[in-house]
Structure formats: structure tokens, C-alpha cells
Batch of 2 targets.
Target 1
Amino acid sequence: MLTRMTWIAVDWGTSALRAALLRPGAAVEERAGGPGILAVAAGGFPAALAAFCGDWRAQYPGARVLISGMAGSAQGWALAPYCPCPAPLAQLASQVLWLEPGQLGLVPGLCDTQGPCPDVMRGEEVQVLGAMALAGAHTARVVLPGTHSKWVRLADGVITGFETFMTGEVFALLRQHSILARTLPALDAEAPWHPEAFAAGLAVAAEGSVLH
């Protein structure tokens, strides 16, 4: 029988909605394929969440719901704050935006204004905390590949800063719209892997700009 510690974790991004029914140490059930925030009309977020996992809330009325990602942006359900780095877990927890007091809340994002280029993230901070728990590493560099990849710095369990890189988006643009597009194999094709060529490319890039 599930205890009072049952809760619902929701990852609500721009183009997708995922949720997991959790209890300490285990995921009881997971769901994916729900609408991203851009597919939800203004004011329609409560109904969209209810349609996606409202049966969980009905079955376990004491379960707390925590929503991370772009649902907490200006284009989402409500605008959750950004916690400045360095950001310990306690700071994130203290700035949850509760839409239903103590029951349903939006996890804050992070901002890093320590360098010359301010940066923000929403949703990835929860992935970093999960990676830290799984790996047991409290001091590390965490890389989150994607359309806009994040490189996150961890020190003693605190997210001290991060950088965003448009690696995935640039890769997609080169594959689809550049002069190279016609010569590249399809992404699902069995292409040979050449680690030496990859390492050589990294070495050239490290020497300076290759976009001159």
C-alpha cells in the first residue's frame, strides 16, 4: 500500500509532457506523450494536467504534485521564479511556486549572472539533482545534451553555475539547410564511427574559431 510519501513528478516542457507516480526509492508508474505548453491554450493547464494524470490525484488525494520545466515560464501555467546560482537544494525548495498550497507547485528555474553572459534554465536543474543522486557525485561537471545543451558545475551538492550551448540546434541547421546537407547520411542510417576524426575535430576547434 502506498504511503503519504507518494507524490507526482511532472516534467512539462515546450513540446512534451511527462509524469511519474513516485514513492521513496521507486517509480510506481510513468507516462509520456502529453501536450507541451505550446499546445495548451491560456487558462487550460489545470484541465490538461487533469486529463493526463488526474486519475493519480483522485486515487492518491494526499500526493503532492511538483511540476518542472517550461510550465513555470511566462508562456506556461504561471511564472515561477529563477533562483540565482550558487543554488543549493534548500533554496530551490524554498522558492517553489505553490498553485495549491502545499499540494501542487511549480519548481523554480535557475539563473547564472556571475559571468559576462547571463544564462537561465528551466527543468534541467531537476535532472541534475537526479543525476547527482544516482551517481553519488556531489562535485562534478554534468553535461545535458539537447537542442540547447547545458554544462552544469556542481560543488559539494550545490549548483554553482552553468553554460548553455546551441550545439543541437546548430547541428540540425547544418544537417538540414547547409551545403553539407546533401552529403550527410540520414540520422537513422548505420554510419561508421570514427573516434580519431572526432578527436581531431575537437583539437581543431580548441585552437580557435572554425567559423571564419
Target 2
Amino acid sequence: MVDRWDYTVEEAIAIQKTMAGKVIIYGKPDKIEYIAGIDVALTPDGRGYCIVAVFTFPQLDLCEEAFSSDTITFPYVPGLLTFREGPLVLKAYEKLSIKPDILVFDGQGIAHPRRFGIASHIGVLLDIPSIGCAKSRLCGTYSQPGNNKGDRAYLYDKDEIIGVVLRTRTNVKPVFVSPGHRFGIDESADIIIQCTDNYRIPIPTRYAHCRVGAYKRECT
């Protein structure tokens, strides 16, 4: 799948710029049976833990989860998250018996300085439709959406729309949604709002966040 990850920062940036041209930003899957939430937790000593949690869609019943752990060697550099967490994600994904139709990441898709956040990178590598649903903005400007659940505003980089600022809970801070691969911008936000209940963070990634934290504690 990937022969190596031991790149320099300069090489990693060059790879992002090259691979960004492979991202497809339109549409959505014709048939969606399974959706996966993905999250990674790190320890101060450089160990990483990952979960890929698969849910039915649209019921959002948990049906499988897979874990991985390893030592993180790539330095922390904003915008290069994949080179720290990507190997863990791929290792966990390979353990799944149920392959999801959509991957949802707690991170960026094309709402990224080089249009190639972790949702785009892993989506392209696996050629699976993917969405980034981040708690904070990495780049771009926007006007606040309305205060009601489902209200949205576009995230812009100059004149280019790179994502959606989506209110997933009334009177609560929005999330930043952007397509990773093989998804349109509005379609990405539509899927995320279908995955929310009474919380700000959608069910697949909220579960992944809680579960990977527990997994990390079990292992340390």
C-alpha cells in the first residue's frame, strides 16, 4: 500500500503538492451501508494508538472496530498530520473484515494549505470516499453560520470554497467539514449532519475519540 513513511519535512510537503492532484471533489457514494470514524491518540513519549470504528449507515450501529499502535517518528508539523498518523490508520484499516463505504476523520480534507489533509491523503491511498470533520480551522475564512443545528456557511481560501462551517448542535460551536476524496463539499456536510445526535461531534468520530483514549490507557 505504502512502501515508506520516513520522509523529511520538505519531502512530505512535496508529496502533498503532487498527490493533491489526485483528489476528486464531487459526488458521493451511490450506496452507503457502512461508515467509519477514525481517531488517533498520542502519548508524550511518542507512542501512537489508532482506532477505525465501523458503523451501519444510516442507523449508526457499531459493527466492528480495529486498533493499531506504534512509535511515532515524524515530527509534529502543522499540515503534515498524515505523516505522523497515517501509518497507524492504514495498519488498523487492514485489520477490518467489514470495509466501510466512507471514512470520517477528526481532521482536515481539502481545507488544508495544500488541499491535502489526512482525510484526502488516506482517501486517495485507499481510493475510498472520505470526509474531514475537524473541531478547529486550519486555514480559510468564513462568516458564522446561523445558530440552529444544520445551519452552515462556506469556508473560503480567497475565492475558493474549501469546506463548510457546520452547526451540528444549536448554539454550540460549529465544526469544519471538508471533502477528503470522492465527495462534494455540500455532500460532505450532508453526511456529517446525518451522523450527529445531541452532541457537537458526529457519532463515528466521537465514539472513535472515546474508544481510542480508553485503548491508550489499557496499553500504557
